Amino acid sequence: MSDMPQLIDPFNRAINYLRVSVTDRCDFRCVYCMSENMNFLPKKELLTLEELDRLCSAFVSQGVRKIRITGGEPLVRRGIMGFFESMSRHLDSGKLAELTLTTNGSQLRKYAADLARFGVRRINVSLDTLDEAKFAKITRWGRLKQVLDGIDAAQQAGLRVKINMVAVKGTNDDELFDIVEWCAARDMDLTFIEVMPMGDIDTVERLDQFWSLKDVEAELAGRYSLTDLAENSGGPARYKRIEDTGQKIGFITPLSHNFCEACNRVRLTCTGQLFQCLGQEGEFDLRQILRDNPSDDLPVITKIHEAISFKPKGHDFDYSRQSVGGKMSRHMSHTGG
Ligand code: SAM
Ligand code: SF4
């Protein structure tokens, strides 16, 4: 692969990981992510699945080795399995090392087998609680049983499942050990995520939701023996192993820990905006260039290189002064979590 083109940013970081939001819509309304009455984008604003394929393929041609599909809820986008099927050609050719997905799990019963068939090997499923009533409260529209059933289907299809749990103060802080042990019993790794200031949501203040992962880690260390893992995915996660269960535990701590030194990723929204950083407002419009050049990918590839040449050093999130600093105007579901 050494003769492949590469995307290198101003801080000499190779950008080989693309996260793609394929829709801003969702069948849930998680309290930290969306307001109950969201205004979604008009359909014409969205990239078509063919346009998404063209853009993702342009990134692959420039050395991107891993693509994560996210949203909104990616599996509610109509026709999305056709997109996975089409993208699997890059896995077959060896240009793409991994095609993966972050999902709320609600549609996995329907799609897990197809995902496996199209070359997906590992998925992240977001699950913040094992309590039905709390699940309904956090997701507003979700049903726990459907998600648990989806996780079963994914494991039956041979997909490796990692659980993502957002740490929400006053909500799932009494379930820490239950969730760790539930995941261990199912041979699933687990990553904790701190609430990030993305987009306006009603009902709750961000600072009220913020449960620092320093506290989560201290609680875990009080019960288990934790070992640091050197592993670095180029993102905001740090990893530890719980020796008692053998599980790998991730901590995504944008607010209490800086993670940008080894950043290897950029994000593409469902409208074709390229964000060089989740925690900065800077963006590049790739949709117009794509639509202006229906049969020539060079202009879009040139623009991708230009965008990477402006990738900032790090994010601006900051809760340290007891106020929410660096708050982003867009929702996580737009940029893709
Ligand atoms: N719908 C899919 C899901 O929930 O997995 C994919 C998109 S969702 C935006 C991706 C991840 O972002 C989820 O794990 C979710 O819990 C997390 N998330 C959403 N809003 C967040 C916020 N404000 N702070 C931290 N994590 C958030
Ligand atoms: Fe939907 Fe995922 Fe946001 Fe929850 S976190 S509302 S499942 S996009």
Fill in the keyword field for this structure.
337 residues; TIM Barrel; 12-stranded mixed beta sheet; 11 helices; binds S-adenosylmethionine; binds iron/sulfur cluster
Secondary-structure map with pairings?
Blueprint: E1 17-21, H1 49-61, E2 66-70, H2 80-93, E3 98-103, H3 108-117, E4 122-126, H4 132-139, H5 144-156, E5 160-167, H6 176-185, E6 189-194, H7 206-209, H8 213-223, E7 226-229, E8 237-242, E9 247-252, E10 265-268, E11 273-275, E12 283-285, H9 287-292, H10 298-308, H11 332-335
Parallel strand pairs: 1-2, 1-10, 2-3, 3-4, 4-5, 5-6, 6-9
Antiparallel strand pairs: 7-8, 8-9, 10-11, 11-12
The structure holds S-adenosylmethionine (SAM) and iron/sulfur cluster.
Iron/sulfur cluster binds next to loops.
Q: Please work out how many helical segments DSSP would assign.
A: 11
Distance between the termini: 29 Å
Can you say what the CATH homologous superfamily is?
Answer: Aldolase class I
Neighbour order of strands in the largest sheet: 7-8-9-6-5-4-3-2-1-10-11-12
Q: Which radius of gyration do the C-alpha atoms yield?
A: 19 Å
Class, according to the CATH hierarchy? Alpha Beta
Structural category? alpha/beta
Shape assignment? globular
* Mean pLDDT across every amino acid position: 88
Integer count of domains: 1
Largest sheet composition: 12 strands, mixed
Note poorly predicted spans.
318-326
